[in-house]
């Protein structure tokens, strides 16, 4: 006999020899109440209730009716018995079993439980959601959480799942630890799936690290735990204030940190869209189980260093990364300055945190248990040497150059099993490095909501924050620049100078950096006149001194400067007080005082100023800067720099034949700034300190370099295969040249460059195209002579980037924006512009964030443009309502040939709406409705299209739920239409000449 899914022994029912379980509960009611309440604690009642709740015998409403705050314990216990009794035999039996678990040693004389009243088979419960898991696993979760409520609350608060008020409500002193745990679970369930998932993962991590620690405490000395505490304390002190953008001590990381967009570089079937911080070191997205290194790649200013700083702080507070007992942070920028050979042990302790005692014991533990250790390396692209696996090193006590130690750590030859997180710019990631990665994570800057969040955090006054955001949304170019966190910080700092300028508002990155330099000078001497022209006069000498240091550092891959390194460039204390050079932070107590520019982009900017203004550089500097080669030789041959070597060993290393051009990204950025500084709009800034002839010559040099670089790209375009149109797959260097042209703001240069480009298709996939790059592309591509197909798949265009592309839409006959995090808002603006463009005929938007709200825009597009050919909206969030909207446009349209809606959720109702609109269509050739939850009703409706549509050739219906009836309708329809070549269903082609009935 089965009651509510529980197998019950027939002997307890109907044979008169055994008492029914329900009667047993009733007859022993007084005794049950006594054993539940005699201790005066609510724990037995609550524990029994937890078990019944986890088994599904109690609903959440039952639970709330039993546990009423402030009601006497006996009353709650009676309510529990009443609820259980009224539910019948099954619930009474499960109640007694739960009571037996809770009170195994306290069963009184005369109190009896039924023997084996049910099969010992465990009931299978459906755990489709994380919230359901919190219920089904409630007893064990309460047992675990009551020992770590504070840690769980801290983690939930840090991750923004809980507020301070939530935490205070759970921590009420009147609650016991187990009651706090139950209250915590109840709050998490109320917050929804995301919070439930986070808590379960936190508990799992805590159990793993806790069990490991318990095993090791027998062998780990107190000195190890002291060292761990010292390391946490040091990391906490170094990480609690934002250090990336100038080290301003008043800017707490907790107050300002804003998540950037994190995505896996390799497609993962279990992950759709962004991932979180915890996924960086987790198992999500693993592509090479043998490797231990995670790469976080992102452009300069995308927030890589700040992300690592956040991870360091969370570990130091024991709020994340609980599976790692030790975390060692390294800066590749600082490792550049290490000239002597070191052993791995010396590298570990000298550059991070030195144990006070028992160094050998702690180091032995690290070697014996590498899986409990985490290393982070910030800025791999800033090393002088590019990654190589040629020099193998396995011995941790053998001394070697620092880069050799680092490369062997990354590839696993040294200390295999240690998890490493490495950051780098994409351009420095070589195939040799990629093969040593367990996964790659892309950091793509701020989303529009991230910009909003950062600005609101930066400005404590909500009124000011609102005004800044309002101004940004009226200046879309500046909003696009804020996609980069470092530029968002600059805009937030300089909002008074940058916003509300009307036509004079900043358009380029160079404009923004000129403004922040003015901002710094203004704050340094608020009483002095510091207009846009005067600061170049008053502060020219310190600017040149800083520029000299910056340029020398760029060409020699040096970003950390000691006191003695400042002397050759005559850097004074007054220059340091300006704020552009800041003291470099270091965990090691053995390091002398060092300095760095407040951000590497600022170093590139000052280097560019020096290139533009300096009279000491020879004429070959700019051409070599844009060619990105032999620049070190140029700097060393110059009289100025021959006397200004930062230190001899660095230059010897920089000229070593094995050193490669890993500094290319910073040289490119320097060249980009030089282009902007030599534009006509900024030409007047330099005339007081540089002859006009010299400025004109340098401007001509830049223009010539850009033209020559573009021509080189165009010449590399292969001839098209017979019958195909000519296409160009652009490389990242092409995007850089486009950005340089935009910085110059010279339409004539853009026209000259584009007049020589004759292709039908321009492909820029995986080129790190964000809103800033979209602005530059639109500025240049609008000057093309002939329409082009623009493919921007797998970038970070987003809604802001879409808006930046609008000026070049008239020259696009097709636009491909797969996987670009675009929403309905961006589509609304894009379609409004596209309708006005005669050349525009195709669009592909697979794998974005589109919903039914955008289908009205596409319906309008289909109604308005009777020459539109292809619409592909696969893998979005379109339902039956969206399909009905599209159907309205399809009824009117007389040109569409390709319609792709795979991976949505249109169902039968959506399929029926589309079928009704397409039955009499005479143009559609290809239709994909793969994976849309379509059943036989939808298939039968589509069979009318198959039967009557005179143009349809191919229909895709795989990954749906079509049954025999639907298949029969499709096969019967095929027999009436010879034009339909194939219908794809369950990976099988249904050929019209030999239909097969499943």
Automatic annotation (TrEMBL):
Q: Which residues form the NACHT domain?
A: 292-428
Instruction: Identify this protein by name.
Output: Nucleotide-binding oligomerization domain containing 2
Q: Which GO terms describe its cellular component?
A: basolateral plasma membrane; cytoplasm
Its family remark reads: Belongs to the NOD1-NOD2 family.
What is the membrane topology listed in the Swiss-Prot or TrEMBL record? Lipid-anchor
What's the main place this protein lives?
membrane
Report the record's Gene Ontology biological process terms.
Answer: defense response to bacterium; defense response to virus; regulation of apoptotic process; regulation of canonical NF-kappaB signal transduction; regulation of DNA-templated transcription; type II interferon-mediated signaling pathway
Query: Which residue numbers delimit the CARD domain?
Result: 17-101, 132-205
Keyword Protein transport recorded: no
Q: Please name the SUPFAM superfamilies in this protein's record.
A: DEATH domain, P-loop containing nucleoside triphosphate hydrolases, RNI-like
Against Gene3D superfamilies, the record matches this protein to: Death Domain, Fas, P-loop containing nucleotide triphosphate hydrolases, Ribonuclease Inhibitor
The entry lists its GO molecular-function terms as: ATP binding
Q: Name one Pfam family in it.
A: NLRC4_HD2
Per the UniProt record, the source organism is Takifugu rubripes (Japanese pufferfish)
Instruction: Mark the transmembrane ranges.
Output: none
Write out the annotated subcellular location: Basolateral cell membrane; Cell membrane; Cytoplasm
Record's keyword terms, sorted? ATP-binding, Cell membrane, Cytoplasm, Immunity, Innate immunity, Leucine-rich repeat, Lipoprotein, Membrane, Nucleotide-binding, Palmitate, Repeat, Ubl conjugation
């Amino acid at each position: 006999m089965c009651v509510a899914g529980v197998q019950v022994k027939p002997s307890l029912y109907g044979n008169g020899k055994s008492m029914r379980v329900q009667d047993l509960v009733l007859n022993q009611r007084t005794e049950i109440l006594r054993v539940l309440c005699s201790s005066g604690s609510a724990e037995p009642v609550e524990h029994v209730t937890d078990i019944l709740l986890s088994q599904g015998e109690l609903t959440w409403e039952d639970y709330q009716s039993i546990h009423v705050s402030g009601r006497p314990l006996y009353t709650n216990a009676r309510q529990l018995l009443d609820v259980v009794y009224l539910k019948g035999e099954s619930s009474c039996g499960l109640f007694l079993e739960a009571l037996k678990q809770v009170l195994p040693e306290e069963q009184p004389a005369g109190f009896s439980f039924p023997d084996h009243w049910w099969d010992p088979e465990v009931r299978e419960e459906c755990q489709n959601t994380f919230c359901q898991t919190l219920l089904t696993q409630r007893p064990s979760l309460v047992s675990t959480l009551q020992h770590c409520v504070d840690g769980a609350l801290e983690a939930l608060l840090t991750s923004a799942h809980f507020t301070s008020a939530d935490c205070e409500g759970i921590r009420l002193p009147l609650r016991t630890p187990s009651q706090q745990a139950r209250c915590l679970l109840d709050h998490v369930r109320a917050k929804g799936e995301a919070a439930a998932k986070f808590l379960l993962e936190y508990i799992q991590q805590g159990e793993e690290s806790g069990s490991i620690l318990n095993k090791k405490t027998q062998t780990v000395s107190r000195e190890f735990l002291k060292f761990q505490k010292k390391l946490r304390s040091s990391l906490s002190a170094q990480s609690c204030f934002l250090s990336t953008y100038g080290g301003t001590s008043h800017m707490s990381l907790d107050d300002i940190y804003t998540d950037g967009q994190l995505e896996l570089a390799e497609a993962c079937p279990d992950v759709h869209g962004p991932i979180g911080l915890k996924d960086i070191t987790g198992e999500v997205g693993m592509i090479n189980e043998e490797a231990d290194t995670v790469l976080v790649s992102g452009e300069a200013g995308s927030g890589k260093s700040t992300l690592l700083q956040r991870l360091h702080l969370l570990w130091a507070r024991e709020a994340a990364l609980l599976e790692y007992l030790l975390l060692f942070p390294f800066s590749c920028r600082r490792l550049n300055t290490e000239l002597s050979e070191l052993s791995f042990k010396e590298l570990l302790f000298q550059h991070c945190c030195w144990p006070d005692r028992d160094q050998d014991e702690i180091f032995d533990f690290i070697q014996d248990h590498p899986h409990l250790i985490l290393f982070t390396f910030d800025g791999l692209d800033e090393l002088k040497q590019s990654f190589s696996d040629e020099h193998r090193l396995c011995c941790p006590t053998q001394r070697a150059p620092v880069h050799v130690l680092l490369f062997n750590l990354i590839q696993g030859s040294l200390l295999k099993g240690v998890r490493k997180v490495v950051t780098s710019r994409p351009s420095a990631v070589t195939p040799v490095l990629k093969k040593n990665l367990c996964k790659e994570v892309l950091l793509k800057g701020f989303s529009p909501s991230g910009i909003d969040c950062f600005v609101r955090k930066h400005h404590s006054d909500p009124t000011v924050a609102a005004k800044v955001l309002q101004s940004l949304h009226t200046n879309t170019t500046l909003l696009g620049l804020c996609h980069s966190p470092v530029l968002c910080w600059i805009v937030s700092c300089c909002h008074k100078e940058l916003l509300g300028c009307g036509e004079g508002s900043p358009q380029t990155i160079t404009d923004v950096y000129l403004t922040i330099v003015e901002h710094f000078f203004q704050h340094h001497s608020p009483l002095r006149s510091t207009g846009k022209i005067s600061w170049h006069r008053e502060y020219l000498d310190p600017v040149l001194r800083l520029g000299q240091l910056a340029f020398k550092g760029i060409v020699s891959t040096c970003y950390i400067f000691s006191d003695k390194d400042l002397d050759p460039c005559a850097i004074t204390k007054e220059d340091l007080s300006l704020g552009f050079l800041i003291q470099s932070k270091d965990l090691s107590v053995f390091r002398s005082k060092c300095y760095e520019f407040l951000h590497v982009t600022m170093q590139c900017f000052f280097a560019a100023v020096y290139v533009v203004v300096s009279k000491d550089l020879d004429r070959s500097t700019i051409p070599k800067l844009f060619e990105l080669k032999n620049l070190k030789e140029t700097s060393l041959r110059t009289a100025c720099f021959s006397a200004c070597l930062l230190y001899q060993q660095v230059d010897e290393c920089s000229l070593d034949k094995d050193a490669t051009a890993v500094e290319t990204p910073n040289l490119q950025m320097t060249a980009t700034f030089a282009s902007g500084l030599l534009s006509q709009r900024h030409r007047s800034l330099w005339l007081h300190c540089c002859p006009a002839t010299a400025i004109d010559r340098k401007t001509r040099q830049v223009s010539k370099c850009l033209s020559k670089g573009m021509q080189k790209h165009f010449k590399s375009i292969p001839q098209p295969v017979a019958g195909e149109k000519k296409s160009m797959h652009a490389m990242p260097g092409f995007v850089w040249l486009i950005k340089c042209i935009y910085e110059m703001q010279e339409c004539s240069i853009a026209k000259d460059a584009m007049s020589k480009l004759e292709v039908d298709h321009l492909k820029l996939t995986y080129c790190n195209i964000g809103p800033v790059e979209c602005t530059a592309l639109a500025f240049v591509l609008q000057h093309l002579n002939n329409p082009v197909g623009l493919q921007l798949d797998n970038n970070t265009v987003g809604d802001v980037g879409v808006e930046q592309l609008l000026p070049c839409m008239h020259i696009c006959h097709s636009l491909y924006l797969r996987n670009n995090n675009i929403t309905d808002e961006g589509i609304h603006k894009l379609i409004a512009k596209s309708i006005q463009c005669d050349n525009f005929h195709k669009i592909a938007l697979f794998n974005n964030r589109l919903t039914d709200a955008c289908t009205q825009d596409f319906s309008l597009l289909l109604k308005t443009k009777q020459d539109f050919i292809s619409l592909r909206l696969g893998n979005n969030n379109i339902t039956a309502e969206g399909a009905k909207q599209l159907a309205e446009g399809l009824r009117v349209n007389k040109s569409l040939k390709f319609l792709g809606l795979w991976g949505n959720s249109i169902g039968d109702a959506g399929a029926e709406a589309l079928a009704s609109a397409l039955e009499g269509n005479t143009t559609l050739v290809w239709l994909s409705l793969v994976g849309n939850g379509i059943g036989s009703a939808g298939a039968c409706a589509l069979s009318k299209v198959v039967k009557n549509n005179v143009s349809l050739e191919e229909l895709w219906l795989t990954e749906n739920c079509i049954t025999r009836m639907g298949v029969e309708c499709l096969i019967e329809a095929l027999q009436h239409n010879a034009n339909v070549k194939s219908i794809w269903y369950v990976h099988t082609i249904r050929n019209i000449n030999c239909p097969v009935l499943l």
